[in-house]
């Protein structure tokens, strides 16, 4: 009986551990507020491989306090009092307990310092992705990025690595606020030929933040942090939430922040020769992005340009594109015709949301 109870207690402890590891939000010490011991520091440089609680480091890693100066440059810490800076070929790593076969998204904040062509390699074996961060989209000094993976093992290692080759080995990006979110990729239904039509399934958005999350360029749909959608462009698109922005439908939407260099796409199964109706919402995020906006939509040989006059205070309108499918797989693409910036110089643009693709024979499509 005692043995049975001990086994049951062990099982419950294991279940609690897994539940804790799977909770959406910051990773253990994901904001680096738990500090290294003074004996494992040399100025700002971290000396011990395991000096930062919950993390393993490699290479030249610095522990930066908010307000720290490097020459005339003030280093900006995205959240809280501390962040880490990755020098040339430096990395941080954390072991994650996950569910094999599930999809996950990593969200983290990064700030540029003094490098000219800053990039980050994010990986969970065997997947990896190179994220360019030389373009600053916001005006606060940093941006939040998302990257996704499918777990092939129950225990994986997340690595964020700076492949930089700067003359100054310390001249690398700041990393802060690393979080995880379980993704549940939507399946196709009879109501829509597109997956994740309203963008409700997506990466973790940090609470009490006003800059959204960037979905990096060249993201394919197999491991997209925005399930079902691809970013087929040189620049990122921005994932926004209704807590901090004006969203046409539901709680999430996408802002096209880089003109024609910021394109969102999905491939849908279609029947050649059949007519389809693509409907969607175009609006603004209520974030002070003012001007004459135009969203371009493409599907098969059909195109449409939807003008939207933004006052920067929120709002939207519905748009329609009818087209005849030419092939069995039709690529649906959205992009912004123009670049837009706010008064503070940060990039912004029109919002796309509530996307529907249906055959015109569908009663629902005819009602629209």
TrEMBL record:
Instruction: Give the GO cellular component terms, alphabetically.
Output: extracellular region; plant-type cell wall
Q: Gene3D superfamilies annotated for this entry?
A: Galactose-binding domain-like (2.60.120.260)
Question: What's the chief localization of this chain?
Answer: other
All copies of the DUF642 domain together span 25-181, 192-356
GO terms assigned for molecular function: enzyme regulator activity
Q: Which InterPro entries match?
A: DGR2-like_dom, Pectin_Meth_Modulator
Please indicate if the UniProt record lists Electron transport as a keyword: no
Protein name listed in UniProt: (wild Malaysian banana) hypothetical protein
């Amino acid at each position: 009986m005692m043995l049975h109870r001990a086994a049951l207690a062990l099982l419950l402890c294991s279940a609690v551990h897994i539940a804790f590891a799977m909770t959406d939000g910051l990773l253990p010490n994901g904001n680096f507020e738990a500090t290294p011991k003074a004996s494992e520091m040399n100025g700002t440089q971290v000396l011990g491989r395991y000096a930062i609680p919950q993390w393993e480091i490699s290479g030249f890693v610095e522990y930066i306090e908010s307000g720290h100066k490097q020459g005339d440059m003030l280093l900006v810490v995205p959240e809280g009092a501390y962040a880490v800076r990755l020098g040339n070929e430096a990395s941080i790593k954390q072991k994650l307990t996950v569910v094999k076969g599930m999809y996950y998204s990593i969200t983290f904040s990064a700030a540029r310092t003094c490098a000219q062509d800053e990039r980050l390699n994010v990986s969970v074996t065997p997947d990896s992705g190179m994220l360019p961060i030389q373009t600053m989209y916001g005006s606060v000094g940093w941006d939040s990025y998302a990257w996704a993976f499918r777990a092939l093992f129950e225990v994986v290692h997340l690595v964020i690595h700076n492949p930089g080759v700067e003359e100054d080995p310390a001249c690398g990006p700041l990393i802060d606020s690393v979080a995880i979110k379980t993704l549940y990729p939507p399946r196709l239904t009879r109501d829509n030929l597109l997956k994740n039509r309203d963008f409700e399934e997506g990466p973790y958005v940090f609470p009490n933040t006003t800059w959204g999350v960037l979905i990096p360029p060249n993201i394919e749909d197999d491991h997209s942090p925005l399930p079902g959608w691809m970013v087929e462009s040189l620049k990122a698109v921005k994932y926004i939430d209704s807590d901090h922005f004006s969203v046409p439908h539901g709680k999430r939407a996408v802002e096209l922040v880089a003109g024609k260099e910021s394109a969102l796409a999905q491939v849908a199964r279609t029947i050649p020769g059949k007519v389809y109706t693509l409907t969607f919402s175009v609006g603004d995020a209520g974030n002070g992005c003012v001007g004459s906006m135009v969203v371009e939509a493409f599907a098969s040989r059909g195109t449409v340009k939807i003008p939207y006059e933004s006052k920067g205070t929120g709002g939207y309108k519905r748009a329609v594109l009818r087209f005849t499918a030419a092939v069995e797989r039709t690529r649906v693409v959205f992009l912004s015709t123009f670049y837009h910036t706010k008064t503070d110089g940060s990039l912004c643009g029109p919002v796309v949301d509530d996307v529907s693709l249906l055959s015109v024979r569908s009663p629902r499509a005819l009602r629209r």
